[in-house]
TrEMBL record:
<dbReference type="GO" id="GO:0051287">
    <property type="term" value="F:NAD binding"/>
</dbReference>
<feature type="domain" description="D-isomer specific 2-hydroxyacid dehydrogenase NAD-binding">
    <location>
        <begin position="17"/>
        <end position="84"/>
    </location>
</feature>
<protein>
    <recommendedName>
        <fullName>D-isomer specific 2-hydroxyacid dehydrogenase NAD-binding domain-containing protein</fullName>
    </recommendedName>
</protein>
<dbReference type="InterPro" id="IPR006140">
    <property type="entry name" value="D-isomer_DH_NAD-bd"/>
</dbReference>
<dbReference type="InterPro" id="IPR036291">
    <property type="entry name" value="NAD(P)-bd_dom_sf"/>
</dbReference>
<dbReference type="Pfam" id="PF02826">
    <property type="entry name" value="2-Hacid_dh_C"/>
</dbReference>
Length: 89
C-alpha cells in the first residue's frame, strides 16, 4: 500500500471512520489494519485502489469481483493502467 494508501487511511481516520486494507504483498501501513480480502467484501463502504500496472493486476476489478460485496460501495480508482473493467448497464 505504501505512501498514498497510508495517507488515505490517515485521512479516513480524521472523519472518525475505520480504515482497513488488503495488500497482497503485505505492505500494510501503520494507519490501517491489514485484513484478508474476504473481510473487505463484508465490511467496506468504499474501496480505493492503489495498484501498479502489472500483468497480474490487469482487470482484477470486474463485475464478478464487485458482486462479491455485501452492499453497494463507492469505488475510487487511482490505479494506473487496465486494473478496472466493468460493464455498465
Amino acid at each position: 500500500m505504501r505512501y498514498y494508501g497510508n495517507y488515505f487511511c490517515l485521512s479516513i481516520k480524521s472523519f472518525d471512520r475505520k480504515a482497513t486494507d488488503y495488500d497482497k504483498f503485505n505492505y500494510s501501513g501503520k494507519f490501517c489494519e491489514g485484513r484478508m480480502i474476504e473481510d473487505l467484501f463484508e465490511q467496506c463502504d468504499f474501496m480505493s485502489l492503489y495498484v501498479q500496472q502489472a500483468e497480474e493486476a490487469m482487470f482484477m476489478v470486474n463485475n464478478e469481483f464487485l458482486n462479491k460485496f455485501k452492499k453497494l460501495i463507492c469505488l475510487i480508482n487511482t490505479a494506473r493502467g487496465k486494473v478496472v473493467r466493468i460493464a455498465i448497464w
